[in-house]
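Archive entry. Fields below.
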Amino acid sequence: DTGVSQDPRHKITKRGQNVTFRCDPISEHNRLYWYRQTLGQGPEFLTYFQNEAQLEKSRLLSDRFSAERPKGSFSTLEIQRTEQGDSAMYLCASTFGNNEQFFGPGTRLTVL
Amino acid sequence: RKEVEQDPGPFNVPEGATVAFNCTYSNSASQSFFWYRQDCRKEPKLLMSVYSSGNEDGRFTAQLNRASQYISLLIRDSKLSDSATYLCVVNYEGSQGNLIFGKGTKLSVKP
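PREDICTED_STRUCTURE:
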């Protein structure tokens, strides 16, 4: 499968724990985006990388959230000290330039 | 006011019906416009881009009115497989591509 992949697909954690998600974009896509989607809402932009540089962060991205894309390929999104309000689907998308964004299947996070 | 607003759903229609979705956006600097489709518990997928002149792809027709900041999607001869949530999406000049999504409108096509 040469699409965007995300791991894990589901994560259940207890409040206060740290979690890390991984996104593998389509090969040669230079742009990578993270979005968050809660039930009944559309996805909301969190952050964006062009190659390894994180160029934009939404105000939704509190200081408990950090994202990296160290070699300009895969990316990780870490949430520290998780809260129940962090429960959501975390979606990754990639593209080359300003072309169509292709989304991964998402990581569904449940914070108990 | 939300940046992208869509018709509240759900829309329940019989097979073969024509259904229209409307969407308004608040930022006049919006540059690109799209309709995405999202199946239950799946990722969004691009259905079609929306151009100022209007565009058609088979049974699907998208229209854009920049003056009214209004986007529409028309589905003709709806199929059971069209059942999904339809997301209206915009991005702004200089936004570096991050997409602004509406809440989505759920369509359920019944036999």
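CURATOR_NOTE: The CA atoms of residues 17 and 72 of chain A lie 27 Å apart.
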